[in-house]
């Protein structure tokens, strides 16, 4: 019974045993296009029958008696899924094989083979007295080092491949397609399309599979991806109905039936034969050139070293005491050392660092709603100098609502909807007939809005029904629904005979709808005589148009008044409507106009003939019907649509401006609306220029170049205007980022340095042309892309600084020590850093450092600097100084240990074999090797900053990978030194506490001096460290001053943050110098030991003392104090008050803090040299009397301090201190007034 019931259900289909078409037969239809076979198969309707589908209802789901769920017929598996072929993934072993193809590693492997051969000879076949039980260790160590390098690089590449595959899979999972199944419109993943599905297409779509057009209006496709010809091809139902996968719908709307999917489609077959090479980003290419230069330097140094050492070995100091075997071994050791120098000098870690950084950034950017499609955009975005942003959905929330409007000359607001609006519109008419006619008119206007729309309610993949489509159209559909008119009923009741979709050039969308004729209604409406319907006509065609309000108003020569009559559009009435549009726009409302027009009888006859020829069944010739919407329209409504500004946009715009990035709004909205939105989000400034697209494109080039720097808003712009803007800015040297969501935005997106498409509102064509997809259409996400771009750029520069330091120091150290050991040392060609040691250093330098430095998270202060120019060198002057300074220090430290170390610990164990292998004794060799490695460890920390910010510990605990790599390097180095001395040519018994302490002190000296050299508190970001920080430090005082200065600079007339970045940096360093000078000066003014003010106070000597008075203390009498003075240049940490001033602030401490704080604030308040004058501290309103008194107090204190400083007697000291103490009370009053 159940089976019979299922069979009677029209929406249930039995699984077909076979289909009348096969994938091979469909290929004959499409490649090449075969119209004759298309006609033979019965066009679209016949093809649908052969595929067990329906052009009306689509595929029918299949039910089984034992299952209540509905599924698609499994027999369609013969056609395959719509999943396109993926590139073949490499296994870990293939990556290892690829890594072994590196030329330097191949040479190193050859050297290892030679070394192993010598080791086998010495171990087994050499004379008894020359045999070496450890001879195989050197060759084996080189092999193990090569294997480790190959394994680490291969694993990194394998992880990168999986990360990019994850990114690609996520991108594809976002693609969805509207299909008709079971006569219901649903959204399904594009990969789930089946042969026989009915797909809805519209402007901006990328055709998801091969298909045949069922019906369509003005459908044009771009097939350049398949044919290479960049022309639009018209699609009709007779000559060319073929829609090919991967092509782009340039214009039009329609429906098609899928005939081939996945690997059976033309696009899928093309991808099967395509091998895509990984793209190289501009930064990778630039670093590749740097790597080649460094490699040439390394090869030249190695060749020169071999030549010089061979000459020195055989000529300058010939080895007369060695036999041929020893000489051969020395020469082979020299060649291996030279090869190792080349391996160390070649920076193969540079490309790896770029890849790791980009892979890390792209995945993290995905969490910030940035889907990166082209890796080059990630690094380019960091140096963008201007952003041309859309308004709708990017700066605004894209949640539109009709809040004001004029409908049939009746004004309304959102609060009036629905009851009040309906009452106002219907009103009290003179008669029931007039009331009925007005109701029909309102129904006609609502139908024009409901039918002339591509938005609709669909079921998404979660099974929920929601509006899908343009948010503007959705707002109008919701408005008509509130008025009581359902869009679905109107669409079912009328028939569309022509559609002209919205385009940026026309600024409107139009259609012709056909409904039953009503001569009485038309007579009541008062149409022109030439527009009257013919007698006895069964139906009536109406033009429905909506779009930009001033465009629709300009095309209208009539309007409908409040009585429902068509009236001529007088100049006064046009001005009234224009004033309403301006009023709405000034309130940041998007204005949409609506108009109708009856189709003239002659035009209607031609349209009817074309429609009857098609009949909507796919068997007509598909002749296009022209829509007469360019004149004689009847203006019926004006709608003000509110799209609220995103709350995070003003802050994001301000961040861009502080980062030196100019933000420009490019929109199709009214210029008044654009101005209002731009002002509210901070884009349009007082001296900025707002311009309309037609005016902009008409400017000559000289005027265009003059206006571009101040152009901030471009309204009523077309895609051509956006493209002109992008190309002009690039011509002036800007790095341009552009957002776009429409099909016609594709040229501008492609022309920009970085193109951003909209993930929600964007068309598939715009996404294909873009570099990054904004998943949430949010401008704030775009700013995050800037931060990540700068983070990637900085990460690469950090690694480059580290790598070049090791390159220079390792090569120089190896060459110098090997030359010394050959000429005047033990007459052996050896280096203090052996080949195995250099390979371990190379592993730290190339792989570990790339992982550590390339994964640093971004910090907000990345937006506090201007973008880098295209011509700027990747190595900045600060980086160059750091590379030279660190390199010189490392080489100097190791050479001092090399030459002086044996004299410092000469009483320790002396191993002659160690001297022959590394040129010095084993203890010195161990300390030098350990010192050099730990120099790299501390230098890795130093390289976390590539600017003048000396706080290298900022964000130290936020990068888990960096901490892990650092810890792993230290642990492995300790294991090597303590337990692998035989392999690495170090002390087999390891280092004692003295050796470890000495090397840590030597290696960390430069790091510590760089971090603490300027008396700046080092700031850790860990919560544990924050808890242990002192209450107030000098840095906190300076930061408070900076904050106050930034607040003052926000006042009118002050410099903007972007323009004062360099000035703030200058003031920062000046404040540090100024404060240190003042602290030293005040430090010389200390009370003598016999003074009652020398006892320590309970109050801390800090800025807190100015706000919280210390507890009351009683100082001992003067007679109880000694007469001896404090040692010279000693600063008393705190001074107590006398009995008469108990409970008050500490005198010397407070005075020193006041002087220091005032000098810091004054240094930040102005760039010129400031005197220590309380009158310059204008934080609070202080009247002239207090300021004058403060100046007098300062003068009195200065005179007393000077007298004290030059006094040699205790009495004179007491007198000067008393004079100084007498000034504390007025100073304290001045301070209280300041607070």
Automatic annotation (TrEMBL):
Residues 831-1007 form the Cation-transporting P-type ATPase C-terminal domain. The keyword Iron does not apply. It is a multi-pass membrane protein. It is found in: Endomembrane system. PROSITE patterns: ATPASE_E1_E2 (PS00154). It comes from the Eukaryota. Keywords: ATP-binding, Magnesium, Membrane, Metal-binding, Nucleotide-binding, Translocase, Transmembrane, Transmembrane helix. Residues 76-114 form the Cation-transporting P-type ATPase N-terminal domain. Residues 175-269 form the P-type ATPase A domain. InterPro entries: ATPase_P-typ_cation-transptr_C (IPR006068), ATPase_P-typ_cation-transptr_N (IPR004014), ATPase_P-typ_cyto_dom_N (IPR023299), ATPase_P-typ_P_site (IPR018303), ATPase_P-typ_TM_dom_sf (IPR023298), ATPase_P-typ_transduc_dom_A_sf (IPR008250), ATPase_P-type_domA (IPR059000), HAD-like_sf (IPR036412). This is Plasma membrane calcium. It comes from Polyrhizophydium stewartii.
């Amino acid at each position: 019974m159940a089976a019979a019931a299922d069979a009677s259900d029209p929406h249930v289909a039995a699984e077909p045993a076979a289909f009348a078409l096969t994938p091979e037969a469909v290929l004959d239809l499409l490649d090449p296009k075969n119209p004759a076979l298309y006609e033979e198969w019965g066009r679209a309707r016949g093809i649908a029958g052969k595929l067990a589908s329906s052009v009306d209802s689509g595929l029918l789901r299949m039910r089984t008696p034992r299952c209540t769920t509905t599924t698609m017929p499994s027999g369609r598996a013969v056609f395959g899924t719509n999943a396109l072929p993926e590139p073949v993934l490499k296994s870990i072993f293939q990556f290892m094989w690829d890594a072994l193809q590196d030329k330097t590693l191949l040479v190193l492997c050859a050297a290892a083979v030679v070394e192993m051969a010598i080791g086998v000879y010495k171990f087994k076949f050499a004379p008894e007295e020359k045999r070496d039980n450890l001879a195989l260790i050197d060759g084996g160590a080189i092999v193990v080092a090569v294997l480790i390098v190959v394994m680490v690089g291969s694993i990194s590449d394998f992880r990168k491949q999986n990360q990019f595959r994850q990114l690609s899979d996520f991108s594809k999972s976002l693609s969805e397609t509207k299909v008709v199944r079971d006569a219901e419109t649903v959204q399904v993943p594009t990969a789930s399309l089946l042969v026989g599905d009915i797909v809805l297409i519209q402007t901006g779509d990328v055709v998801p599979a091969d298909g045949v057009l069922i019906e369509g209006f003005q459908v044009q496709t771009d097939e350049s991806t398949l044919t290479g010809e960049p022309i639009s091809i018209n699609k009709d139902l007779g000559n060319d109905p073929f829609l090919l996968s991967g092509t782009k719908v340039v214009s039009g709307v329609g429906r098609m039936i899928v005939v081939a999917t996945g690997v059976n489609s033309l696009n899928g077959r093309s991808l099967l034969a395509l091998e895509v090479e990984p793209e190289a980003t501009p930064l990778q290419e630039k670093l590749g050139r740097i790597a080649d230069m460094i490699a040439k330097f390394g090869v030249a140094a190695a060749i020169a070293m071999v030549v010089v050492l061979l000459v020195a070995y055989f000529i300058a100091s010939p080895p007369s005491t060695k036999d041929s075997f020893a000489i051969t071994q020395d020469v082979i050791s020299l060649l291996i050392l030279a090869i190792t120098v080349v391996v160390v000098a070649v920076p193969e870690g540079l490309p790896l660092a770029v890849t790791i950084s980009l892979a890390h950034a792209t995945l993290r950017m995905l969490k910030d709603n940035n889907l990166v499609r082209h890796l080059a955009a990630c690094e380019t975005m960091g140096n963008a100098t201007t952003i041309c942003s859309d308004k709708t959905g990017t700066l605004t929330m894209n949640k539109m609502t009709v809040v004001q409007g004029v409908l049939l000359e009746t004004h309304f607001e959102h609060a009036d909807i629905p009851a009040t609006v309906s009452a106002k519109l219907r009103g009290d008419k003179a008669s029931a007939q007039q009331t009925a006619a007005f109701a029909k008119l309102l129904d006609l206007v609502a139908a024009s809005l409901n039918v002339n729309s591509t938005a609709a309610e669909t079921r998404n993949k979660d099974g929920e029904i929601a509006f899908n489509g343009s948010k503007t159209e959705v707002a109008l559909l919701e408005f008509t629904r509130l008025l009581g008119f359902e869009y679905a009923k109107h669409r079912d009741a009328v028939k569309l005979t022509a559609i002209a979709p919205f385009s940026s050039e026309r600024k409107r969308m139009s259609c012709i709808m056909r409904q039953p004729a009503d001569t009485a209604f038309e007579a009541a409406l008062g149409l022109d005589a030439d527009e009257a319907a013919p007698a006895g006509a069964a139906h009536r065609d109406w033009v429905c148009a909506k779009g930009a309000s001033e465009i629709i108003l300009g095309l209208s020569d009539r309007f409908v008044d409040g009585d429902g009559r068509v009236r001529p559009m007088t100049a006064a009435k046009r001005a009234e409507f224009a004033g309403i549009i301006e009023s709405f726009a000034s309130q940041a409302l998007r204005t949409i106009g609506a108009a109708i027009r009856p189709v003239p009888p002659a035009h209607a006859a031609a349209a009817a003939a074309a429609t009857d020829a098609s009949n909507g069944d796919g068997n007509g010739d598909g002749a296009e019907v022209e829509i007469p919407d360019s004149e004689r329209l009847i203006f019926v409504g004006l709608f003000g649509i509110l799209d609220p500004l995103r709350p995070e946009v003003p802050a994001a715009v301000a961040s861009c401006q502080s980062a030196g990035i100019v933000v420009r709004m490019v929109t199709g909205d009214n210029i008044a609306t654009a101005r209002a939105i731009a002002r509210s989000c901070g884009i349009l400034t007082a001296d900025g220029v707002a311009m309309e697209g037609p005016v902009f494109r008409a400017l000559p080039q000289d005027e265009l170049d003059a206006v571009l720097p101040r152009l901030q808003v471009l309204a009523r712009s077309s895609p051509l205007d956006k493209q002109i803007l992008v190309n002009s800015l690039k011509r002036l040297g800007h790095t341009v980022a552009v957002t776009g969501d429409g099909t016609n935005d594709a040229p501008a997106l492609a022309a920009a340095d970085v193109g951003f498409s909209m993930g929600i509102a964007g068309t598939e064509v715009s996404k294909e042309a873009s570099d990054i997809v904004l998943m949430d259409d949010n401008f704030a996400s775009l700013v995050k892309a800037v931060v990540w771009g700068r983070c990637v750029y900085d990460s690469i520069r950090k690694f480059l600084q580290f790598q070049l330091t090791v390159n220079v120091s390792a090569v120089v150290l190896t060459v110098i020590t090997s030359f010394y050991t050959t000429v005047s040392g033990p007459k052996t060609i050896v280096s203090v850093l052996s080949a195995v040691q250099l390979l371990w250093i190379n592993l730290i330098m190339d792989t570990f450092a790339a992982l550590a430095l390339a994964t640093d998270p971004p910090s907000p202060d990345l937006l506090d600097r201007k973008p880098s120019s295209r011509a700027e060198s990747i190595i900045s002057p600060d980086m160059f100084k750091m590379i030279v300074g660190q390199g010189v220090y490392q080489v100097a430290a190791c050479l001092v240990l090399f030459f002086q170390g044996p004299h410092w610990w000469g009483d320790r164990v002396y191993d002659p074999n160690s001297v022959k292998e590394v040129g010095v004794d084993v203890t010195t060799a161990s300390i030098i090797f350990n010192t050099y490695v730990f120099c790299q460890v501390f230098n890795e920390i130093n390289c976390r900053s590539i600017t003048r910010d000396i706080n290298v510990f900022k964000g130290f605990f936020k990068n888990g990978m960096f901490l892990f790599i650092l810890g792993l390097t230290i642990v492995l180095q300790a294991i090597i030194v303590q337990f692998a001395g035989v392999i690495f040519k170090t002390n087999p018994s390891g280092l004692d506490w003295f050796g470890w302490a000495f090397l840590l002190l030597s290696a960390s000296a430069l790091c510590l001096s760089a971090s603490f050299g300027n008396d700046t508190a080092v700031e850790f970001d860990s919560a544990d460290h924050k808890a242990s920080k002192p209450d107030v430090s000098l840095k906190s005082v300076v930061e408070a001053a900076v904050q106050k200065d930034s607040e003052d600079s926000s006042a009118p007339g002050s410099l903007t943050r972007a323009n004062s970045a360099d000035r703030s940096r200058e003031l920062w360093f000046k404040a540090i110098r100024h404060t240190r000078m003042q602290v030293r000066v005040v430090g010389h003014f200390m009370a003598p030991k016999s003074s009652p003010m020398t006892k320590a106070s309970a109050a801390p000597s800090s800025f807190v003392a100015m706000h919280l008075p210390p507890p009351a203390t009683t100082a001992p009498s003067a007679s109880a104090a000694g007469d001896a003075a404090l040692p010279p240049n000693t600063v008393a940490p705190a001074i107590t008050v006398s009995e008469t001033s108990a409970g008050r602030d500490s005198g010397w401490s407070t005075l020193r803090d006041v002087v220091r704080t005032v000098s810091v604030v004054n240094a930040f308040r102005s760039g010129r040299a400031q005197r220590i004058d309380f009158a310059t501290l204008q934080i609070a309103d202080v009247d002239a009397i207090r300021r004058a008194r403060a100046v007098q107090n300062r003068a009195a204190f200065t005179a007393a301090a000077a007298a004290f400083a030059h006094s040699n007697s205790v009495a004179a000291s007491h007198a000067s201190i008393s004079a100084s103490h007498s000034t504390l009370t007025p100073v304290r009053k001045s301070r209280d007034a300041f607070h």
